[in-house]
Amino acid sequence: MKQLLPAVLREERQFAQLFAGQALSLLGDRVAMVALPFAVLSVGGSAADVGLVGAAGLLPTLLFTLVGGVWADRFRRHRIMLISDLVRFAAQGAVAVLLITGVAEVPHLVVLMAVFGTADAFFMPAATGLLPLVVSPERLREANALRGLVLSSGMVVGPAVAGALVWLAGPGGALALDAVSFAVSAAFLLRLRPRPAVDEVSGGSFLEELRDGWRHVRSRTWVWSGMAAMSVYHVVVLPSIFVLGPVLSEQEWGGAAGWSAVTAAFGIGSVAGDLWAYRLRPARPLALAAAALAVASCQALIIGAAPSLAVVAVLEAVTGVAVSLFFVLWETSLQTHIPEQALSRVSSYDNLLSAGLMPLGLLVAGPVAAAVGLRPTLYAMTAIGVPAALLWLCVPAVRRLPDRAEAAAPAEPAEPAGATEVAPA
């Protein structure tokens, strides 16, 4: 039975411990992703309110993710993740109770999602920085792909679970499952014993460490240009999934059941992408990641232009492959080319410039769609997103970055000073 497990789980015991704790939590997140928009709609919220609640959960990233990055490079990363899990358990549990008891209102959801998002802002940089401390360098891509596989599988199983729970117990029942998943994750993190990062505790001031983290970003053209491309994807393209897609489904595709089918199809494609990434050994991984991001940026056009729900589902499965490839290759590139003592700070800038800016898109998507129309807004999203990804692919440093996952050193010097001046060619 043990031989059926992937090699990274058999050989990396600390990663196996982390993976076991995160698996249910990631499934719960996928359930919540489907349930939350319909939770807002169930209490009388509008499309703008869906965006507002989603933005409340992501806005704290703008305020706290850089703090989280410095703390994660300064203190034990798995302890920061443990505290974050406990706070998210409390916040999501409160949302579930309010919904189940029928007293929830949109302002309640906004406040509790803001608390949830604050804890999440500390979790993400710590989680990215923790992985190289529990898995060997040559197994990093496999570990990222396996984690992505759980996320993708959750997109297949999660919508079905969410749809059933929303139908049987309302959105509150689905969000209660997500709350429990954080408690499970916290229990496993209590038992985790990762090795310390190099120079994990620094004597520098907060601002000094923050500036040092930014130096690692700006001195690598492939990093800051990648963050710029992801900013466009998160701010312009992803609101089609989190705001406009559910609204269109509510109007034309049968509400939560229809949108769950689309999300499940995307998840099937994502599973295929993660399985591919697990075995893939590209000579130039970041170039492939940029091409995958361009395909992923077609999601809004697919939702708006496809003639039927079935066609949307099939095409979303294709973009699911691309999204999985992109994130596995991007995360592995950061983990193998950024010094581990600065990795969480670099990751925090990544979160700030991508997910942190996403609330802007969530807040604007509903009003823009109301003003110019739902489908024209979706078409415009892809018209902006795809060129941004292709511009990233044109950056020479992106096309040249090698695959170092097989023999990664613990630290890598920054690019020469002139490298920051390389423009897209």
**Class, according to the CATH hierarchy?**
Mainly Alpha
Radius of gyration from the alpha-carbon trace, in angstroms = 20 Å
CATH homology group: MFS general substrate transporter like domains
Let me know the number of strands.
0
Order of helices and strands: HHHHHHHHHHHHHHHHH
- Assess the beta-strand content as a share of residues: under 5%
Largest sheet: none
Chain-averaged pLDDT: 83
Helix content: over 70%
Class from helix and strand fractions? mainly alpha
Q: Could you name the CATH topology?
A: Growth Hormone, Chain: A
Please indicate the count of domains: 1
What is the general shape?
globular
Which architecture per CATH? Answer: Up-down Bundle
As residue ranges, the low-confidence spans are 405-425
Count of alpha and pi helical runs:
17
Give the N-terminus to C-terminus distance in angstroms.
51 Å
Protein name: MFS family permease
Transmembrane segments: 50-73, 85-104, 146-168, 221-244, 256-278, 285-303, 309-330, 351-372, 378-398
Membrane topology: Multi-pass membrane protein
InterPro entries: Bacilysin_exporter_BacE_put, MFS, MFS_trans_sf
